[in-house]
Amino acid sequence: MTKKETRLKEMNQALKALIEPEGDWLANLANSSALLFEMLDGLNWAGYYIWKKDQLVLGPFQGKTACVRIDEDKGVCGTAYSQRKIMLVDDVHEFPGHIACDPNSRSEIVLPVIVGGEVIAVLDLDSPVKARFDELDRKYLKEFVEILVDETNFLPLMEKF
């Protein structure tokens, strides 16, 4: 196991220990974004956009100020939401319709947060390093989101579905 994989595995174990005793969705999104920002090198933003009234709306995050609202199918986050799939982008400047909240961002990975068959949010990670994210990140961040969903009460967010 590589050093990077060991670190990602430790991050997921830390997430489970951190949120297991706490079911509140807001607290868990806040703490999990802080954990990502602390444990992953080369990030300039880590956080969530929550689906509200036909838009993704800024949720808990770590990093520079961010865009507040993103429409479905717009940018990497909106595309991950509408296509219900993980988007791994090596160079955001080459992504059609990229939304430049931070002009220093070069690469991005966005993961849909799916609860009860509905995408309720997306997890967004940005880096100023081109091609920062790879298949190992995809694997462990997918597991990270699965842990979050398993350990968190998202029912208050589900009322709109």
Can you summarize this structure?
The protein has 161 residues and is an alpha+beta fold.
Structural overview:
- Residues 39-146 form the GAF domain.
- This is GAF domain-containing protein.
- InterPro entries: FRMsr_CS, GAF, GAF-like_dom_sf, Phosphatase_reg/MetRdx.
- The chain has 161 residues and is α+β, with helices and mostly antiparallel strands.
- It has a single domain (3-158), classed as Beta-Lactamase (2-Layer Sandwich).
- It has helices spanning 3-19, 25-39, 75-83, 135-151, 155-158, and strands at residues 45-52, 55-63, 69-71, 87-89, 107-115, 118-127.
- α1 (3-19) runs antiparallel to α2.
- The longest helix has 17 residues, at 3-19.
- The mean pLDDT is 94.
Mind sketching the topology for me?
Blueprint: H1 3-19, H2 25-39, E1 45-52, E2 55-63, E3 69-71, H3 75-83, E4 87-89, E5 107-115, E6 118-127, H4 135-151, H5 155-158
Antiparallel strand pairs: 1-2, 1-6, 2-3, 4-5, 5-6
List descriptors:
39% helix; Beta-Lactamase; 6 strands; GAF-like_dom_sf; 5 helices; 161 residues; GAF domain-containing protein; Phosphatase_reg/MetRdx; alpha+beta; single chain; GAF; L-methionine-(R)-S-oxide reductase activity; six-stranded antiparallel β-sheet
By CATH reckoning, the class would read Alpha Beta
Count of DSSP helices? 5
Computed over alpha carbons, the radius of gyration is 15 Å
Mean pLDDT: 94
Spans where pLDDT lies below 50 across 5 or more residues: none
- Could you name the CATH homologous superfamily? GAF domain
Morphology call: globular
GO cellular component, one term: cytosol
Protein name: GAF domain-containing protein
GO molecular function: L-methionine-(R)-S-oxide reductase activity
Pfam family, one: GAF_2
